[in-house]
Amino acid sequence: MMIKSFRITCCDVILFQTSCSVNVTDVSSRSRSVALTFTTAGVSCTFSLTADRDPGADGDSGANASGCDPDGESKNSFTCRIPGLDPGTLYCLTLMSKEDGERTHMFVFWSRSAGHVDWYDVTLEDSDSGTTFRTRIQDSAIRRSGFSSLVPGTSYTVSVVASAGNKTAPPVHRRASTAPSSVHNLQVASLSSDRLRVSWRGGPGRAERFRVLLTDPDRVLWKNISVPNTETSAELDGLRPGTLYAITVETEAVGLTSRASTQGVTVPALVSDLRLDNNGSSDRLQASWVSPVGGMDVYLATLSALGLPTQERRLHPNITRLVFSGLTPGRSYQLCIRTTAGGQSSETRTRGRTVPLPVPSLSMTPLSDGSTLRLSWTPPRGDWERFSVLLRDGLTVLMNQSVSKPSQHHLFSIPGLVPGRLYGAEQLLVRHADETTLSVFWTPPVGEWDGFTVLLREEKPATAVVQKTLSWGARECTFNTLTAARLYTVSVTTNSRNLTSDQVSVTAWTSPAPVTRLQVSSHGSTDSLQAQWDLVSGDLDSYRVLLVQDSSVIKNQSVSAETSSIVFHALRPGALYRVVLTSVRAGQVSRQAVAEGRTAPAAVGEVTVSNNGRLDFLTVSWRPAPGEVDSYLVTLSDRQKTLHTVSVSKSSPECVFNSLVSGRLYNISIASRSGPHLNHTFIQERTQPSQVQNPTATHAARDDYLKVYWRQAAGDFDFYQVFIKHNNLFLQNQTVLKTQSECVFTGLVPGRLYTVLVSTWSGKYETSASTHGRTFPAAVRFLVLAGRGTEDLRVTWSAALGDLDHYEVQLLFNDMKVFPPITLGSAVGECVLSSLTPGRLYNILVTTISGPNQKAQFIEGRTVPSKVKNIHISNSGDSSSLKVSWTPGQGDVDGYSVFLYRRDRQLDVRPVLKHHSQVTFGSLQPGQTYRVTVQSVSGDLLNNSTATGCTVPSAVTGLQVEELQSSCSLQVSWQDALGVSDGYVLQLLDDRSCLVTNSTQPAGHTRFRFDGLTPGKRYRVLVQTTSGGVHSLGVSAGARTRPAPARGLSIQANTTTHLSFHWSPPDGEFDFYDIFLYKSDDSLQERRRGQSSSQQCSFQGLRPGAPYRMVVVTHSGEQTSQASIWARSVPAAVVSLTARSGNQSGALWVNWHRGSGDLSGYLLSLHEPVGSQRAAQALGSGATEFVFSGLVPGRLYRAEVWSLSGELSHRASTLGRTGEMLLVILVPLVVLVPLVLLVPLLLPVPLVLPVLLVPLVLPLPLVPLVLPVLLVPLVLPLTLMLLVPLAPLVLLMLLMLLMLLMLLVLLVPLVLLMLLVLLEWDEA
């Protein structure tokens, strides 16, 4: 009954962050491959299967590994196949999840043992702590066992023992190990651009060491550090900045590893040589830098200034230059360049400023004093700190002075100016002026000239812009690329050789530039519009803005030249507006810029979203938005993913969504659409969450504890809330993360049935599922053994805490039930267990039962050992020693103690093993009475049994036994014994040494008679001397009683020569019979020997009528007795007895001859045919005849002659008829004559009738002789009758005559035949 082989496999379970636990459904093998099928509840799990050769098998212990493929479209069912295995080899299969690599479940498989097996005992022992797990698998079940909740990282020894009845096979051992737990809370922190810190928390179970592995994105191993199992962190240095590394922490134990991995990024390095330059621009800044060392993902450039929105740019890592435009002139900006890599970043900052704009509308006019000039201007756009005013005379600076920021004019008082001097060309006129072009013409001057010099200056500030030299024939000059809305002075000087005339000047305004990039936007506002435009080049006084709706001017506003936007309020939601914008300078108006814009439609109101308690349904309704709306656009999105978009007419403000995920929070956008604008109203609502599946509450064998677990609810939810209540009273509740599916309640009442509600919460919605769970009942308290006896134990206890249904009391011995459990009510606190085995140590289990749960409390109790029985104190025939023996009492004992006392004094004590039951005490006094106590010991309990004994007294002498004349008595005599004695015991034993009777005689008596014994039996008389109930060696003598005579001797049968006797066996015993037959003169006729079983005897050849005496002598040993009886043989009957009429019709002569033997006389009797006696006559022994007269003539009589001898007689009889016999002969003739005459007519009748009558009337010996004679006449007539038709009538007549003759011939025999018949009837 040896187990052929078994194997151990370990499978992974969820321990941290993964849910790749498995359920093995099938293991199959072929000669060179093995397949494992299993299911998992995890998502995106991958597994590997390893087959390791059994270490105890021959050959190399190599390993084969294979991946596991999903079955079909299912992602939860997998099949792993490993080919190329050696046939007939035992392999250990290890299934591991690649996500966590952890195994704390162990499965054991084995082959069936040969022969009959009842069960297998599977034992799993922790090699370190010695903790043992056991389970029993029936042979009819699948030979597989699983152990769960094992300690990770532990080596275990597995043994399987096959059992059949009380026989067990040697155990088969294997070793297996659980993989260590992977570390928990693995975290990576970047300490600097080249250093990382890794920290973790050790998982449950045992670990020998940790190993930290660091690999770069190219999977090149950079670091491999071994860390003791007491450490929980490690630092890694010498790394590249901004690089993503993979960090793996392996836990090593018992030759197995498990790993946990994460990623970490070093802090990227800073950029260097960061600059922010304006390059002379008022609205542009250029940033530049040098790329950092190491890796990075992106640059994040941020330009910020006080009071302005921040500008952010995301740049590719290969960009090192960036231009910001549209900035405010003269403003100081701060630039931050942040390098990012994997969520880590570092930043570098610098500052820069744009160039301020020149002041616009600069003009200088003389005052009335003739020596003072007034310089006026308007503030420029942007920021500035102060003004710097320079007054020049040609190339000479006459004044350089700073003016505060708020000033808008300055006075120059400079002596030496020539008042009223005018220089310039004659009749200089402006031909054309637009935004960028200024054209002047003039009339020729008087005189001669060589050419003209035309100078274009800006008035404010007075700056020469362009100077052109024209030929003498030129009459006009055009300047291009001028600044719009700027006041220019054009001076024309006539040149003649080296002489120049005074300048003739003319001033003109360029036209204001029209507004470009006019944009009208609501910016999501329902009642306002913002118009934005780019500031026009040149100088402006203001902008004029018109808001038009449906050809009606709603608003007409002017804004300053520095303004680039305007907002219109109190507009109608969703309405279409047109904005007309013109720039104004010195009364001049630019060309119009027109743009349309629409206010955002108003949002809907009173939005209502309801799931109606359904898991996959949402209905949306709202109040229509005010203002103008084209339609509504309802969008349902889920986690940034749009699921449904529905366009709804503005007349039907509602929408329904189906087939949604339960418990999911959906984003619902209801957009009022007006033109291209949408105004979204966002609302979030959830579908009703699904309830959990199969909630289960288990007590985990604890009396104040319930563990609730369930299958995850479908769909989305936020958390679980678990309530526990009793009698509709909520007692506790817990909030459980949605990633978990269990919770624990403690502090509960033992044995109580609770209702557990598991609520799935998603937002404000909940769905509950309920189950019932009962805590493990508490054990009884203060369980004590209150009383004990040899066959009973009494236990008492205090009631168990909490709720319970009843108690069950079980009695165990060697872990086996002794009796069926006893059920007691919850109010009972004691129990008496009876009919127990004395002296046995029991385990008494008092089990508290609440529902299906039970909790046992046990106590050991030992019954009082039973007293020994049948204490026998034997002296073994020795007068100086006593041998004590006893029969062990019922039950168990540890041993015995035997005490010897004489009166009240203890003489000796002997310990005796429990398997022994005798002890001998020596050196004792003959004839002395001793007391012996045998003490049963079981544990600390004792039970005594006491008996007394005495040494052997002296034996008697001169014993004699004499038989008496009586067959039932024996006489015994003896001489007194020497020494002390109480008396004598006489025992009468039969030949089989069985006691027949006994008698006790006091001391001094030396004679006794036994009566009432069995006759003929041999007895032995045993005489013993008694002293204190002890008998001496017996002295015996034998004798036999006389046998009893045979009983009931009688004559069984007698004939003339034969006598048969019968008797009954005599009382008692005998050996055989002697049988004697004596004649009347006491001479011996015959002697025979009969066995004891004989009860009859017969004698032959005796004399008829003679008397005999038979004697039966009974023998028993040498003793005899006899019985006798007289008997007579039957006298012989007379011979030749006859009875005849003697020619007389009324008389009958009877004569005979004497028979042999003795006779005393005759007795004659005559009887009528009907049987009545007619006459009787006694005659002497010499008579030989006698005549009866006076009889009826012709009657048949019966005569009887009795031969007499003593009281016996012997009959002889005969028949005789008196005379007158003629009538008998005539009767047949009278009948036959008519028959002869009728022969021709009745031919067949007479022929057939004799044939039929012959067998009936004749004696059987005569039938064969007569029948052939009768057949001849029958056959011949019949033949003739057949020939009648063929013969002539004559022939027929002849034949008939012949037949008559034949009948006459036959008539005589027929008559004789009838006479014989009549005689036969008469004799009968």
UniProtKB/TrEMBL annotation:
InterPro entries for the chain: FN3_dom, FN3_sf, Ig-like_fold, RTP_Phos/Ushers
Gene Ontology, cellular component aspect: receptor complex
Region (Disordered): 54-75
Single GO biological process annotation from the record: angiogenesis
Record-annotated Fibronectin type-III domain positions: 179-273, 424-514, 603-701, 864-955, 1045-1135
Segments crossing the lipid bilayer: 1221-1243, 1291-1319
Classification via Pfam families: fn3
Segments of skewed composition (Low complexity): 58-69
Any one GO molecular-function label of the UniProt entry: cadherin binding
UniProt keyword terms in alphabetical order: Membrane, Receptor, Transmembrane, Transmembrane helix
Protein name (Swiss-Prot/TrEMBL): Receptor-type tyrosine-protein phosphatase beta
Species: Liparis tanakae
Name of the gene encoding the protein in the UniProt record: PTPRB_0
